Automatic annotation (TrEMBL):
One of its GO terms (molecular function) is RNA-DNA hybrid ribonuclease activity. It comes from Trema orientale. Pfam families: RVT_3. Residues 2-98 form the RNase H type-1 domain. The lineage of its organism: Eukaryota, Viridiplantae, Streptophyta, Embryophyta, Tracheophyta. This is Ribonuclease H-like domain containing protein.
Length: 124
């Protein structure tokens, strides 16, 4: 069951690692702001998961890794896990939606049909 989704457009150019960190951080913020309490946060960016596990806060991207870590602490018993790229098509489709349409958009309680199809494919 999908309770909500968000597609955010960011200005500028981010490194792949920083872009994945921003995606994880904004996803957690979305959950917190909507009163959701997911126990599992999934990303196909293994380096983000490793940075969180190793508490790598001294690197250039350290501040955002610290932000993610603090947000995870606000969610009781939440952990961030690596998942394969093929199991995470919904996240990539949301990023492409923001890029193609040059817009940020969120859905809560109901998601568009195109996203429902992708989520169902992710689950199979």
């Amino acid at each position: 069951m999908v309770l909500g989704a968000s597609s955010l457009k960011f200005a500028g150019h981010l490194s792949p690692f920083l872009a994945e960190c921003v995606a994880v951080r904004e996803g957690i913020k979305f959950a917190i702001n909507h009163g959701l309490s997911p126990g599992v946060i999934e990303t196909d960016a293994q380096n983000v998961v490793l940075a969180l596990q190793e508490k790598t806060f001294n690197a250039l991207e350290g501040p955002i890794v610290r932000d993610i870590s603090r947000l995870l602490e606000r969610l009781e018993n939440a952990s961030c896990y690596f998942t394969c790229h093929f199991c995470n098509a919904a996240a990539h489709s949301l990023a492409q939606f923001a890029f193609r349409n040059n817009v940020s958009q969120s859905w809560f309680d109901s998601i568009p049909d195109w996203l429902t199809t992708i989520v169902l494919n992710d689950l199979s």
